[in-house]
Amino acid sequence: MKENKKDKTYEEYQKVFKNKKYAENYHKNFTSKGGIGLLNPINFFGVNVARAEINTVKNLLSLCEGNRILDAPCGSGKLLPKLLDMNFSVTGADYSDGMLSQIKIKNKNLKLIQADIRKLPFKDKSFDVVICNRFLHRIPIEQHTETLKELYRVSKKYAIIYFGVKGILTDLVIFAERVLKLGDRGKLYYISKKEIKRLLYENRWEFIKGKKAIPLISTGYVVLARKLD
After folding, report:
1. Is residue 92 in a domain?
2. Are 95 and 132 in contact (CB under 8 A)?
3. I need a labelling partner for 161 at 20 to 30 A (CA). Which of 55, 80, 105, 153 fits?
4. What's the predicted TM-score (pTM) here?
5. Cα–Cα distance, 68 to 88 (Å, whole number)
6. In what order do the strands lie in the sheet with 68-71?
7. What 3-state class would DSSP assign to 17?
């Protein structure tokens, strides 16, 4: 697949999320603090999608061993409360200081760091599980390898990774969002389940299990992978 002018590179994507106003709006749309109800349909949809994704990650984590978790990029901290409730030792890493500034959690088991997911400031095998949620579906598929290799380096054994897989109702949902002015997801990069397994294998990951966050509607397909060696 050739990259075209509409494709966002890592650097362009980083600039979008570095914007503090964007980070504030993003955080509000995925947390109940934004106000859930018919008068705020964007928040209502965002919060319910977030809950489904969090539960999916939680279910896949139950299949893993170990206590040290890396959430990268952690964004405004959507996953962090659940990970801490599960008594994990958690490190959240994100390139955007705007996103990190939205995280108000005070917990001795949480560390936050500003970092590029392609060059993480951690030693090899620093974490039992690395989580990469809601990121790769925004980046052209040919750019996935760099991230998958870095996640492999810092993981002892497992990774939980979010990919974009087109569903039966995906186009209809996106069209409705735009017509009703509920927001525009921008360009998404879909990959088939077969291609996910091939991509993981080429980067020394073994596909263990995959689960759609919200069947038929959500593009999110969350995968549990294990290092091949």
Report:
1. yes
2. no
3. 105
4. 0.85
5. 6
6. 110-114, 89-94, 68-71, 127-132, 155-164, 220-227, 205-212
7. helix
Domain assignment present for residue 198? The answer is yes
Q: How many CB atoms sit inside 10 A of residue 149's CB?
A: 13
SS (H, E, C) 97-145: HHHHCCCCCCCCCEEEEECCCCCCCCCCCCEEEEEECCCHHHCCHHHHH
pLDDT tens for 164-182 read: 997 766 666 666 555 555 4
**Is residue 203 situated within a structural domain?**
yes
Residue 46 belongs to domain with CATH number? 3.40.50.150
Q: pLDDT per residue over 126-152, tens digit each?
A: 999 999 998 999 888 999 999 999 999
**How many other CB atoms are found less than 10 A from the CB of residue 11?**
9
Q: Which of 33-37, 120-124, 148-152, 176-180 is predicted least confidently?
A: 33-37
What's the CA angle centered on 69, arms 65 and 73, to 5 degrees?
A: 140
